[in-house]
Amino acid sequence: MSIHIGAQAGDISETVLLPGDPLRARFVAETFLEEAVCYNQVRGMLGFTGTYQGRRVSVQGTGMGIPSHLIYVHELLADYGVKRVIRVGSCGAMQPDIELNDILFAMSASTDSHINRLRFHGADYAPCADFELFMKACSIAASRGIAFRAGNILSSDVFYGDDPDSWKLWRDFGVLAVEMETNGLYTEAAKFGAQALSILTVSDQLGTGQALSSADRERSFTAMMQIALELA
Ligand code: HPA
């Protein structure tokens, strides 16, 4: 057992899918996995291990934001021997040609968080996706006819900001979308020599203010999960 995950050694697969929402983890386990077993209920942050097409895979909720996300990712990598971490999340699109439901692969993650500044004594670390996972995700999406975009995203510490225009600076430098975890995920995976990739679906468009309904969220989530599960 680790502090925030009540599993025994061996309960968790070497590949873990990471939704922010623990109820998403349960939904994934119940909808896509066979013989899924819940290995964690500490703080309600549910985690499950089951099989997908005969291969063992786990799915673990992480909460929102880099600090919460890193608690779970760290314990998975440090205490349970996890080798592959795949975030499945939502994001707000910044570029005008990215639409609701689009799927993005985060090649790299900028941030307004100072967590890496603390880690690297004031210097900037450039976290990036694992190349092999990234290439595989691209080919799975292409073979299934699922359109995607890939590039730099922003992992922000702030959901409710004070300046409604602050995101536009990132947009002007080509950043595709904003979410709140990937910069931490890629850095932590690098420290442990693990493979990491973030797959995101666009749930809102910052330029137009459009947002997905919950039924649409479900549908776009399914396309993202198909890619993530095949990758796992
Ligand atoms: N900001 C941060 N995270 C998000 C957003 C957003 O606008 N949309 C979906 N995840």
Layout of secondary structure:
Blueprint: E1 15-18, H1 22-32, E2 34-40, E3 47-52, E4 55-60, H2 66-79, E5 84-93, E6 103-111, H3 115-119, H4 131-143, E7 148-155, H5 167-172, E8 177-179, H6 182-192, E9 195-205, H7 214-231
Helix pairs in contact: 2-6, 4-7
The structure holds hypoxanthine.
Hypoxanthine is lined by residues 90-92, 156, 159, 178-180, 203-204.
Query: In what range is the share of β-strand residues?
Result: 25-35%
Q: What fold name goes in the CATH topology slot?
A: Rossmann fold
The count of β-strands is 9
Q: Name the quaternary structure.
A: single chain
Q: What is the architecture at the second tier of CATH?
A: 3-Layer(aba) Sandwich
CATH homologous superfamily classification: Nucleoside phosphorylase domain
Our measurement of the CA-to-CA distance between the termini, rounded to an integer number of angstroms, reads 24 Å
Would you state the CATH class?
Alpha Beta
**DSSP helix count?**
7
Pairing-aware structural class of the strands and helices?
alpha/beta
Instruction: Trace the largest sheet across and list its strands.
Output: 5-8-7-6-9
Radius of gyration: 17 Å
Low-confidence stretches: none
Mean pLDDT: 96
Query: What's the helical proportion of residues?
Result: 25-40%
**Biggest β-sheet, characterized?**
5 strands, mixed, barrel
N-to-C SSE string, H for helix and E for strand: EHEEEHEEHHEHEHEH
Shape: globular
Name the bound molecules.
hypoxanthine
